[in-house]
Structure formats: C-alpha cells, structure tokens
Write a structure and sequence with these properties.
Radius of gyration: 30 Å
Order of helices and strands: HHHH
Oligomer: single chain
Largest sheet: none
Low-confidence stretches: none
Mean pLDDT: 82
Strand content: under 5%
Helix content: 40-55%
Length: 147
C-alpha cells in the first residue's frame, strides 16, 4: 500500500489512563505499630513477680497494685491484669467447690477445680515470662472489674 503525502495514517493511540485514585483510610485500617515501650529492669522484675505471685491468689497482685498505683504504668497494668484474672479464678473455684457437693454431678466440678488450677498455673507463668521481657500480658477471659 502506498501512501500519498498528507494521507498518512496516524499511529494507533492508546487511551489516556485515568490517574489512580489515592487510597483513603478506612475505619478498618490497622494503625501503625506503636514504638516499643521503655520498661526499666526493676519494673520488668516487679511485673514478673506480680504474675508469679498471683498463683497464690488475688491478694499479692492487689497489694502490688495498691503500692505501685500511679508510680509505674507497666507494673500497675500488670497488677490490674493479674488481679482481674485472679478474681475470676477465685469465683470459678468457689463455684466449683459449692457445686461439687451435689451427689451425681459433683465429680465433674471436682475435676473442673483441678482444671481451673492448672489453667491458673499455666497463664500465670506465661504472664511472668512476658512481663520479664517488658511485654504487657493480657489474660484471657478476665472479668475486667478493676480498671
């Protein structure tokens, strides 16, 4: 095919691409991670001790929380967390102790008391290990009575 001057076929053009929309933040967007909290060695040790002593009941974390309230945010947080956990554990053990007195189903609640004790031991140790590294540990199934 021969072309005459002035009758040249323009090269095919590509349609202009629209500018890409900038993503808008949504409410489901995950915020950037917070910088790691600086926790002193003393606070790490006291946080670890709080979680370990909570194996004995709710009194040790209560005492530590009352002493460190307003002085050390990390220890205060860990003491409140351990205190809430131990309040729930105490309620569970007392309820199982009462219900284990029933004749036909009492053995189930007797075993439940043992299971609650094992869970308490496991999570208190996990909390102590996390606190010794300066990480705020969160117990599962806490009642959140102490804020």
């Amino acid at each position: 095919m021969t072309t005459t001057p002035g009758s040249e076929v323009p090269p095919p053009s590509t349609p202009p691409t629209p500018p890409s929309p900038t993503p808008t933040p949504t409410s489901d967007a995950v915020p950037p991670p917070a910088p790691p909290e600086e926790v002193s060695k003393e606070d790490k040790n006291l946080g670890m001790l709080t979680n370990l002593l909570s194996i004995l009941g709710f009194v040790p974390p209560l005492v530590i929380w009352l002493i460190k309230k307003g002085k050390s945010p990390f220890v205060e947080d860990q003491a409140k967390e351990a205190l809430n956990w131990e309040i729930g554990i105490t309620i569970g053990i007392v309820a199982c102790a009462i219900l284990s007195g029933f004749s036909y189903i009492g053995w189930i609640f007797g075993l439940s008391r043992i299971a609650i004790g094992v869970l308490n031991l496991v999570f208190c140790i996990k909390g102590a290990m996390a606190a010794s590294n300066g990480v705020r540990f969160r117990y599962p199934w806490t009642l959140g009575l102490v804020k």
